[in-house]
Amino acid sequence: MFNESEYFEKAEATRVRVLSEALPYIQQFAGRTIVVKYGGAAMKDSSLKEKVIRDVVFMACVGLRPILVHGGGPEINAWLDKLGIEPQFKNGLRVTDAATMDVVEMVLVGRVNKEIVSLINQAGGSAVGLCGKDASLIRARPADAEGIGFVGEVTSVDTSILETLVNNGHIPVVSSVAADETGQAYNINADTVAGEIAAALGAEKLILLTDTAGILRDYKDISTLIPKLDIQEARRLIDSGVVSGGMIPKVSCCVRSLAQGVRAAHIVDGRLPHALLLEIFTDAGIGSMLVASEFMI
User: Can you give the residue range of the structural domain that contains 197?
Assistant: First the structure.
């Protein structure tokens, strides 16, 4: 028989336990910068998108300083298709000729970025949309690869506009388009942009939302998730082939950010509702956390 009193007592106990577990993390990370790379299923699924946005607003409301960096590959592909431009890839990189670059900039800066800003504002936050061109936030150069067009690498990050915004209670939302000294626009991998921004700010955490559970010793077996590892172990996993394919640039991005002073980097499954809150504010977490040294684990 359903016992209404017992049901509500259990529900209340669960809420209290969750809040109690979150409190020390809220205290620990208050005032700290958290850079989140937003992408994958968490951007495509409307229900997941709503939860990510609410997580980011929650972080800001309890005193953290979130910065959101995003890509937008599927929407770029959709618009290329509408315009009759065939998407092309080479070694995992989007071949970005002049026409494709125009579409990339239009979609990332003009559509995806402003949609995210609007959603954050609707959820009670105060978001400001940026790209690498704004206030010379990111300087770019051509990537060191042949035949990929206007694909760029980060040469420098000027954090002054980000610091001004977060110091005044705003949530910066950054699209991964930047320019070189001549003003030529470049399409840059969003993971790379997030990592370089996190490093330049000395962020407490870099969090990459992905479509995988984290770093797995066997990519077919979720039970082999590695919850915590240091830079040396991450490099060993890449060298041994345990980390392969599309995970290599993500893990390498985390390693590079840690080497430049980011305190912790996380690879988190964005397909899980409220993945950000679960990773930051619970004892167990849900993904893989990378730190600089085994002594920090």
Answer: 28-296
